[in-house]
Design goal:
mainly alpha
Length: 521
């Protein structure tokens, strides 16, 4: 029987420690009073959150963090220091009514600590907003605060243990001088840490920033040091080094992604890891479960994408296309309007038919990779530049690729022009088709993320990619810009969320007032 490797044993020891700490914390919190929410607004708040999440198209594991972030954005905009210092209960009410947290789950002690954390971060926010503007204030103060508060509400200690294990694996495996010909880059270790978070856990920049701030023991209490480190993190998170290492982690990450699911879902994992045969059997079962869950996630992703496209298209149709038709043509041009509304969602549904789950060969390869990682008594697997870098194709290929993009868009545009599309109709069609293509591509990457065997290319797939990739490229660019200025989400925040949450807060306060009056009788 092969024994577990030193890295694997270190992972087991870390999991046992964090599990013991989590159990102690659970026992400590058990007798402490929990926040109990009584009052109206739960149904409508939960319904709005579903609409808001569809408009933002965020990864599911980030939804709680984003809801907390929106709460603190609204709260900080009031500049009410007394309310900020006592915001814990207000946040608990909002998250419970929205369905993010169960009732009678949040301890009173945690609620009290939230206000203290908010006051510290607001002091930094108040200083940054005048000097550096709203974007940096949000990124440096509001976003890390949201992650900090989320970590107070949910236990992420196992996640931290897994990140450290995966980080150490890539630190040991990457042959730095072969991947980086000019020598080891500055902040190399931190870049690996970021790549592991981003590629294996799909962490957003706020989560990564908070993890690094904790790693460097930086706090907004020391405002000067905190600002300096955040400036460095801004450059590091978007650096070419992180992107290059990210490709390595992404390509070699499939076995680790399955392991991460076990870390999150299997309480007895530390014990199982000690027995090679037992672990590999459980690991194979986890792979099969991931395939089934992947199918469900893809279907759910298709539904979210369709809802996202319809909501966005409806707003743009009302706001742009209909007025444009009346101004230019004197009446609504129905064919372009209907095609622009219906084609992207139908296209998304058709893309679903092209997504195929991995086969048994991939399962065997994943098990073998994890066996080698945790139990093989041989030198560490080496990762070199040949596995990490994008091939340097000739200029002719790059020119041909650019011509391909222009040709595909030109042919599609010419066909639509013949159907009576105007300039605005064409622009909207290509924006939504490109967005749908990129959303479909993201769903296909979900399958690719658990594949360790290269999929075979046939004639049909080559033709599909020939027509499909130009729209994906444009869709990715649109998505990056849209995520920074999400007009639909901004409209929902101002028109619905702010009035809704204000009314619910007033209703809650009125309920407490009436209750106190009853007690006086």
């Amino acid at each position: 029987m092969n024994t577990i490797t030193p890295l694997g044993q270190q992972f087991v020891d870390t999991l046992e420690r964090v599990d013991a700490h989590a159990k102690q914390r659970q026992e400590y919190l058990k007798p402490i009073e929990k926040v109990h929410i009584v009052g109206a607004g739960g149904t409508i708040t939960a319904a709005y959150e579903q609409l808001r999440n569809a408009a933002e198209y965020t990864e599911e594991h980030l939804l709680l963090q984003r809801a907390i972030q929106r709460f603190f954005k609204r709260l900080f905009s009031t500049r009410d220091k007394a309310r900020i210092a006592n915001c814990g209960e207000e946040l608990a009410v909002e998250l419970t009514l929205a369905g993010y947290m169960a009732n009678d789950h949040i301890p009173i002690t945690v609620v009290q600590k939230i206000g203290g954390e908010a006051a510290v971060y607001f002091a930094a926010y108040e200083q940054y907003i005048g000097q550096l503007g709203s974007e940096k204030s949000d990124n440096w103060a509001v976003a890390p605060l949201a992650v900090q508060v989320e970590s107070m509400l949910t236990d992420h200690t196992r996640r931290s243990a897994f990140v450290q294990f995966a980080y150490q694996f890539f630190i040991d495996s990457i042959v730095v001088d072969r991947v980086f010909k000019s020598g080891k880059p500055d902040n190399y270790d931190a870049s690996v840490f970021i790549a592991v978070h981003r590629m294996l856990l799909k962490s957003d920049n706020a989560t990564i920033r908070h993890a690094l701030l904790e790693r460097y023991q930086a706090s907004p209490v020391n405002i000067v040091q905190y600002q300096q480190i955040n400036q460095q993190l801004d450059a590091l998170i978007e650096s070419d080094t992180v992107e290059k290492i990210g490709r390595i982690v992404n390509r070699r990450g499939a076995p680790l992604r399955i392991l991460w699911r076990m870390v999150a879902e299997v309480p007895e994992l530390p014990t199982i890891l000690q027995n090679r045969e037992k672990f590999l059997s459980a690991y194979e079962s986890q792979i099969e479960a991931e395939y089934r869950e992947m199918n469900t996630r893809i279907n759910r992703g298709i539904v979210k994408s369709v809802v996202f496209l319809i909501i966005t298209k409806f707003v743009i149709g009302i706001g742009l296309e209909v007025p444009y038709d009346y101004v230019v043509h004197g009446a609504i041009i129905w064919l372009p309007l209907l095609i622009n509304l219906l084609f992207p969602p139908v296209y998304m549904i058709l893309l679903r038919l092209t997504l195929v789950l991995p086969n048994r060969v991939n399962t065997t390869a994943l098990v073998d990779r994890m066996d080698a990682l945790l139990y093989a008594q041989r030198p560490t697997l080496s990762i070199t530049s040949s596995e990490s870098t994008v091939n340097n194709y000739s200029t002719a290929f790059n020119v041909l690729y650019a011509v391909l993009i222009v040709a595909v868009f030109g042919a599609a545009g010419w066909g639509l022009w013949l159907l009576g599309f105007g300039v605005l109709h064409l622009a909207i069609f290509f924006i939504f088709l490109s967005t749908a293509s990129f959303l479909g591509f993201r769903l296909s990457r979900m399958v690719r993320e658990i594949e360790t065997v290269d999929a075979e290319q046939n004639g049909v797939s080559m033709i599909r990619d020939f027509l499909y990739l130009p729209f994906v490229v444009v869709g990715r660019w649109i998505s990056e810009k849209y995520s920074k200025v999400n007009i639909i989400a901004m409209i929902l925040d101002m028109v619905i969320e702010l009035p809704l949450k204000t009314v619910i807060r007033l209703v809650q306060q009125w309920g407490k007032f009436i209750s106190s009056k009853k007690d006086e009788l």
